[in-house]
Amino acid sequence: MGRFVIRRLAGMVVVLFAVSVLTFLIFNVIPNGDPADRMAGRNSTPVQIAAIEREWGFDRSIFVQYATTMEKTFTGDLISYANQTNVVDEIKRGIPRTLALAIGAALLWLALGVALGLYTALRAGRWSDRLVTVLALIGVSMPVFWLGALASHYLGFEAGVFPNGGYAEIGEAGPWEWVKHMILPWCVLATLFVGVYSRVLRANVLDTIDDDHVRTARAKGLTERRVMTHHVLRTSMIPVVTLWGLDFGAVLGGGAILTETVFDLQGVGQYFAESIGQLDVPPVLAVTLFGAFFIVVLNAIVDILYAALDPRIRLS
Asked: What kind of fold does domain 93-315 have according to CATH?
């Protein structure tokens, strides 16, 4: 297991380097033209463009440009040219809000997806199975901005059951007020994933439930509950863990832009969207790079979880 973890971590470092090079090329090289002109944004003057060119080393070799870009990104010396704020500080301010949204929603869609998937697998072909299938398809098909707007208007503005958007700092407003502000965003974001997870788990449980190792476990006299939890569910969870790692990384990397915007959470995703609207390149570059890193790191964690769920994977 130790050697497997070391191999995956070494591979992660190589992929992270490749991601940083690719991100740099996409923003500074592939579009062609003067990157300083793009970075300066609208209404820039020749003096500003020349200053950016010197600051970022755009008048030097591509290797110097890459090193300067990475140094500015990871040392916190990246400045937004739209409002002259420190980009890394803005990302740090938004990360707790994005983490709160992503972690809460991810745990919710995983728990509900597993519960509904196992329930429908054990009742395959019955009316309850068909009902959950229909509800899952409806949930997946709902646009998040539409569902979020409905939830915010009817449950927040009109009914007053939940706050109508915004974010409450847990240290200032208290845990209960923080939870009240996050319940609607969690539920809206989780709705998009619950149906997929329940369908994936249902299909895997039905494929696994008659395997040889499951029949052997039953022949040994194990209870049906132990057979389902220790032999069927454990094997069937591997694809679900894959999906969860990818989706969670995508949400952290900016996949919750619409949810954050609808509920005005002021997280990293909303900061990313506002920067795109202002054609502000430094924040877009930094959020893209950090988002890609989140996904790569979580993929490595998923691989390690694979090995914990199925020892055979450690040999690959």
From this structure: MetI-like fold (1.10.3720)
